Amino acid sequence: MFNVQCSIHSAVQELSSSIIRSFDWSSFNQPSLISQQHKQALQKVIPPVQKDATQSTTTTRSRARSNSDVTNMAQNPTSAARRPTSNRKLTASESMSLDRLLRDGPPDGDIIGSLESMRLKILDQGVKSDSDGMSSLRIYIWLILLNAPTLETDAYLSLIHRGASPAYSKIRNDTFRTLATDPLFRRRVSEASLIRLLNAVAWKLHDVKEARAEFRNLQNRQIMEAAIHGSPERNPHSPSMRYRARALTLTTEGSDVGAGEPGTYVQGMNVLAAPFLYAARSESEAFMAFHRFITTEVPGYVRGAMDGVHKGLALVDKVLAIVDPKLSLYLIGKGMSAEIYAFPSVLTLCACTPPLPEVLRLWDFLFAYGAHLNILCIVAQLVILRNSILSSPSPTKILRSFPPLQADTIKEVTLTIITKIPDDVYAEIVFHAK
């Protein structure tokens, strides 16, 4: 049994490495192209809706009157994903199960087609797991979807052996209460494991911060020397200086995207890291996935000012106003902006809402089609609660803690919501966490 597991582990690592090394996602770095890619990928598997705004609004209101009607808001994603299209040729990977695709790798070297097929299978079938949400393949699926590089265990151990990071005291103040009421998490993941992972990530981010500060100091000194001596090669705009700047960017790429300094730890990272440790088969795998996630998918969430989280909260309000104006106006009238009730859900990608197995299933969907869709998933939960909220004189009590996650229902409602979002707003959603 151990040999079989090792064989699967080796094959999956090989697939992950193959995808990472063979396909360069940098070609998708144009903002308009990224937003179109994410939206079009989902629109391929959901039915078209009427374009008339009045009809759309009316439909939204009538379909969300009660929780029992929620599943009618969207065509079942299973049937939608299976719907044949005349202009699309079936790929070899579509005839393979998700397990086999991971074990054997992309057929005929078709990496792009295999990734698309993997996403569809996750949406259609989900990732097979037991009642506790455990799956031997989930962490490898996440690593592939996150395009995470391979990591030697020794590299993770070297970060641990450096001892306490500058953020260690902050980490210790948070870890003991991480998912404290979740028996599944407490049984599988120790506080010591969570401390080690967060401390290692803090060291990694600290090193990036130090490297950038050192580079800026060097650049400033060279600018001063260039001004004094008139040396053209030390000018910051010279080819040599541009090359050095590019080299630093490559060695720290993904550690901070956009304006502002990268942080080393912010409150809430402990909850965000928890599902990675729960799903992973080793700390080093969880570290690689978590570090990749926060530095490429949601760097704006972990910067000191957490500007990405606040942008996300504003987008929850904006999307709700588009999808359900009546519900939006009701909450605004009660003084209930997303800043008040949705901060934990935005920051942690709904990991703050139990049960944990449902969080993992929702994350499968988010990693497949983009973590930015969490904004729509939060709005979907509000739509599901619509009847209860509108009938409550004090919705604060309802929204103080969201009801237990139902990943499949949330995904179905999200697939409907996405068809109602204008392209410019969707582009904001895609980039809000960068």
TrEMBL record:
Residues 45-105 are annotated as: Disordered. Pfam families: RabGAP-TBC (PF00566). It comes from the Eukaryota. GO terms for biological process: negative regulation of septation initiation signaling. Residues 67-79, 87-96 have a biased composition (Polar residues). InterPro entries: Rab-GAP-TBC_dom, Rab-GAP_TBC_sf. One of its GO terms (cellular component) is mitotic spindle pole body. Residues 132-370 form the Rab-GAP TBC domain. GO terms for molecular function: GTPase activator activity. SMART domains: TBC. PANTHER family: MITOTIC CHECK POINT PROTEIN BUB2 (PTHR22957:SF263), TBC1 DOMAIN FAMILY MEMBER GTPASE-ACTIVATING PROTEIN (PTHR22957). This is Rab-GAP TBC domain-containing protein.
